[in-house]
Amino acid sequence: VVRRAAGEIFMPLVVGGGIRSLEQMHKIFHTGAKKVSINTPAVENPDLIAEAARVFGRERIVVAIDARWDEEKQDWEVYTHGGRRATGKRALDWAAQVEKLGAGEILLTSMDADGGRDGFDLPLTRAVSERVQIPVIASGGAGKVEHFAEVLTTGKASAALAASVFHYRRFSVEDVKKYLREQGLEVRLADEFRR
Length: 195
Prior knowledge:
Elements: H1 2-8, E1 14-16, H2 22-30, E2 35-38, H3 40-44, H4 47-56, E3 61-70, E4 75-80, E5 85-90, H5 91-101, E6 105-110, H6 122-131, E7 136-139, H7 145-153, E8 159-161, H8 164-167, H9 173-182, H10 190-193
Parallel strand pairs: 1-2, 2-3, 3-6, 6-7, 7-8
Antiparallel strand pairs: 3-4, 4-5
């Protein structure tokens, strides 16, 4: 599946889910993926981040962070196992740690906003983006094209990810890109990838 997808798309392919070893990463890269994304295995074994960055290059290692606001602690907490298991780790501290260990990007999902379509979690995204120097990809909460501009400007994200709005065809990727360009944000439209 990865090999077939890599041959059809015009952007770097990131593969994640169940990746626990350098051997698995090597196989995934060999099939055409440009990057791997790790979450639970990174929390359970932070050295995996450093080892992967050393072997494959930090630009190929994305650490996914699932975070949820803890009202009692007044802070964001990291979750693993698909957002089902609290770790006790502060999201901002974990983001700084994964950067120091060698992650090239952070894929940040707000468990609070995910699926709500009410907008990305701007306070979380901004806090993490201001804490690290590596790119932060915001995920969770997109419901309209305006949300993408908000997370890239107010939230200071480097990029934004969405799924259900595209699956259910509320709008297209091209609609988002055109809107972002109208707002003065730098994006490449689909026809520009083929040049």
